[in-house]
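Checked the freezer inventory, then went back to the computational side. Two predictions to log before the end of the day. The first one is the construct we discussed on Monday; recording sequence and tokens without edits.
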Amino acid sequence: MASNKISVTMTKSRFGRLPRHQACLKGLGLRKINQTVVVLNTPENRGMINKVSYMLKFEEV
């Protein structure tokens, strides 16, 4: 059974990135490097995580 929540940590800076990638980080609620948020495991959040996966570390909670 899939978990309902995902823990997401931003590992790289958002500066100098594409505007759409910055918008994905904002949509996930990430503002600072090494900040961790817990988001729901929905297709919308999964899409944002997949788009900027090179800047994130994530795991199911």
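The second is the one RB wanted added to the comparison set:
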Amino acid sequence: MSTTVETARSSVIVAIDGPSGTGKSSTSKAVAAKLGLSYLDTGAQYRAITWWMLTNGVDVSNPEEIATAAAKPVIVSGTDPAAPTITVDGEDASGPIRTQEVTSKVSAVSAVPEVRTLITALQRSIAAAATGGIVVEGRDIGTTVLPDADLKIFLTASPEARAARRSGEVKGSDLSATREALIKRDAADSGRKTSPLAKADDAVEVDTTELTLQQVIECVVTLVEGKRVAA
């Protein structure tokens, strides 16, 4: 087989969508690493711009202020699945973007059309530059960002399972409160006018409620490899 054909088969674009707590990040990173693909966490980009706005005194309850400030920060995402990075204006933001304050405000910021337009353009440029293929995870990748992705996967899980996983990630967190926060986030993401959280018509749905992380990874790897063979 020629090198050109082999490269073409390897250069698969995978879109993985779904709500919080379904295992998107862990699965996406592991699949990308296993298959030698780049990786992009689009949620981190929305968290990064939210963190920048909170840090710089932007009123994140005011869509007009958010829209005006949206183009100011420079967000750079590293795409190595083994060590994904994100910087804002040259500053490492990987830690600060995971705070509860950012988590509670990111839906409001990401719902502003100007923010989504800018971040979507950034995401598309990163995917286009990933000549070896890429796994892109988020909430609107298969429907809006990369509607022509080679493979679209939508991860789901029960609210209870998702809350248990998320609580396990945060020491001392309350399971019931975590569940309510996830449901509230789902409603905000699914109900927004611009690029809502939704399953693409041609996406493969994978319910992770009863699956271990390793089982989910194996399932997705099998789907990607099947798409490569069919390409």
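For RB: The CA atoms of residues 51 and 101 lie 9 Å apart. Residues 213-230 form the longest helix (18 residues). Let me know if you want it refolded.
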